[in-house]
Amino acid sequence: MENIAVLGAGSWGTALALVLADNGHHVRLWGHRTEQINEINEKRTNEKYLPGVRLPDAIIGYDDLCAALDDVAIVVLAVPTKAIRTVLADVRACLAKPITVVAVSKGIEPGTHKRVSEMVAEEMGEWLADVVVLSGPSHAEEVVLRHPTTVAVSSPNMEAARRIQDIFMNHHYFRVYTNPDLIGVEVGGALKNIIALAAGISDGLGYGDNAKAALITRGLAEIARLGCALGANPLTFAGLTGVGDLIVTCTSVHSRNWRAGYMLGQGKKLDKVLESMGMVVEGVRTTKAAYELANELGVKMPITEALYEVLFAGKDPKEAVDSLMARGKKEEMDDLNNIFAKQE
């Protein structure tokens, strides 16, 4: 059994800590709020993020980062993407030997357009043994109830990915696949949050299932276009970290991106929406990064462009939807034909 540190005591970090504890590992769950860590250790709960859930005794909370990392070879990185570089700088200062980082946050960095694994590699340098990405359709609220969940892991070193697969695999409720397409796994996991925001806006406007089905389907085409322009395998987007993650994030009330979009569709302003959420909405930051990256690469992403205008240019959500519907005629299969032609 392993000593494993999980950095980030939000809903997803806590849920993965529970999986690891169920699998017999000794888990150190780090968070920066002492009050929260005391609650985890004394009451075995994390009520702000996962109300009503009792945490296994094998999970020990830490507010001291270096203590949490002492003699640990595997670190699960579950902090928001905007905090990754800052947290990893602190991690480096605590280490005596290189570690394997399992990145479970989903996003693309504005400005640099780096994926999470690239940010980890840059920040960790010689202190990084391996980086592994874990992604897929997985709401923390259902994982902690031990409902059946399936995810995928990927890495530049697939031996490391298989090791992490073994560590996380729980044959009762948490199934883990491997996928060698690191770019596709990360792009699918990041960009689905954009489409979930758009789906929430559509629902908030009262447009119903027809509109949402169209957003999901055409959103998947956008994700695949950008992903393949970056070197991803198009088939990845038909898998767990593509259409699987897209479906669950666009259709579930557990999705914070969908909930944020829903409030926007009802007319609430972005700053008020984010303030009321109480948790990070990764899709907002990723929309900015994907918009910039698509322009840089010359990739057409009309849903992302429309959402960018709503979030950052003050466009009315209904006007944004109307502009999408008013676009010129197209052949539906052009996207897929072009994508697969580039793979030949």
UniProtKB/TrEMBL annotation:
HAMAP family attached to this UniProt entry: NAD_Glyc3P_dehydrog (MF_00394)
E.C. number(s) listed in UniProt: 1.1.1.94
Biological role: Catalyzes the reduction of the glycolytic intermediate dihydroxyacetone phosphate (DHAP) to sn-glycerol 3-phosphate (G3P), the key precursor for phospholipid synthesis.
Organism: Geobacillus thermocatenulatus
Catalysed reaction equations from the record: sn-glycerol 3-phosphate + NADP(+) = dihydroxyacetone phosphate + NADPH + H(+); sn-glycerol 3-phosphate + NAD(+) = dihydroxyacetone phosphate + NADH + H(+)
PANTHER family according to UniProt: GLYCEROL-3-PHOSPHATE DEHYDROGENASE (PTHR11728), GLYCEROL-3-PHOSPHATE DEHYDROGENASE [NAD(+)] 2, CHLOROPLASTIC (PTHR11728:SF1)
List of residues binding sn-glycerol 3-phosphate: K106, G136, S138, K192, D245, S255, R256, N257
Keywords attached to this entry: Cytoplasm, Lipid biosynthesis, Lipid metabolism, NAD, NADP, Nucleotide-binding, Oxidoreductase, Phospholipid biosynthesis, Phospholipid metabolism
Predominant localisation class: cytoplasm
Family: Belongs to the NAD-dependent glycerol-3-phosphate dehydrogenase family.
Protein residues bound to NADPH: S11, W12, H32, R33, Y49, K106, A140, R256, V280, E282
Name the record gives this protein: Glycerol-3-phosphate dehydrogenase [NAD(P)+]
Catalytic residues, chain numbering: K192
A GO CC term attached to the entry: cytosol
Pathway named in the protein's UniProt entry: Membrane lipid metabolism; glycerophospholipid metabolism
Record-level GO BP terms: carbohydrate metabolic process; glycerol-3-phosphate biosynthetic process; glycerol-3-phosphate catabolic process; glycerophospholipid metabolic process; phospholipid biosynthetic process
Class of the enzyme per the UniProt entry, highest EC level: oxidoreductase
Pfam families: NAD_Gly3P_dh_C (PF07479), NAD_Gly3P_dh_N (PF01210)
SUPFAM superfamilies hit by this protein: 6-phosphogluconate dehydrogenase C-terminal domain-like (SSF48179), NAD(P)-binding Rossmann-fold domains (SSF51735)
